[in-house]
Write a structure and sequence with these properties.
This protein is mainly α. It has 9 helices and 2 strands. It is globular. The chain binds iron/sulfur cluster (2 copies).
Length: 174
């Protein structure tokens, strides 16, 4: 978990990063007037470490390393409330997606293990996890045919693999 008492080093400001976000994504940290509507509604913020208003402010200030190495950005529940209710059209969720992509590209160590495992599975079998047994509350096991479900067709993983490796996941999946 990020240390909330950690003092941010303001000698590390990278305004090129903030401007890059503004010009290359649909998010704009510069128009945020810190009303904290996003933070007060945030689904993840109620139960987790995510402080979306703080993340937006950090991006506006150019605190690139601090946000990319943050565990917070991985706890977003993608509920879209921040995006829907922001009075300034900052598009905080789009910013979270951008930061996650950049963190993967940079191979930061804070990417949750569960995500890395999911990607490894996608590359291997085309699914985020191997198909699970279907078990009733009485612990009876069923297969797909018994339940009238069609055969599970496994996707062709070659294209998926190529695209995932292009995104920068090569640094993450060792
Ligand atoms: S709701 Fe919008 S304007 Fe208000 S703090 Fe969040 S991002 Fe900034
Ligand atoms: S989309 Fe993410 S950051 Fe935005 S309110 Fe939902 S959980 Fe919070």
């Amino acid at each position: 978990m990020d240390d909330p008492k950690q003092i941010v080093d303001f000698s590390q400001l990278d305004l090129e990063f903030s401007n890059y976000v503004k010009h290359n994504t649909s998010a704009n940290p510069f128009v945020c007037f810190t009303c904290r509507t996003c933070a007060s509604l945030c689904t993840s913020g109620k139960v987790n470490v995510l402080n979306i208003a703080k993340i937006i402010r950090k991006v506006a200030l150019g605190l690139k390393d601090s946000v990319l190495n943050s565990k917070e950005i991985w706890t977003c529940a993608t509920c879209m409330k921040c995006q829907e209710f922001c009075p300034q059209g900052v598009n905080p969720l789009d910013m979270i997606y951008f930061l996650q992509n950049k963190a993967v590209e940079a191979g930061t160590p804070t990417i949750p293990t569960a995500y890395v495992e999911m990607v490894k599975n996608i590359i291997k079998i085309g699914l985020i996890q191997p198909p699970q047994e279907i078990i009733s509350l009485d612990f009876d096991e069923f297969d797909r045919e018994e339940l009238g479900l069609p055969d599970l067709s496994m996707p062709d993983t070659d294209k998926l693999k190529l695209n995932l490796l292009k995104t920068g996941f090569r640094h993450v999946i060792k």
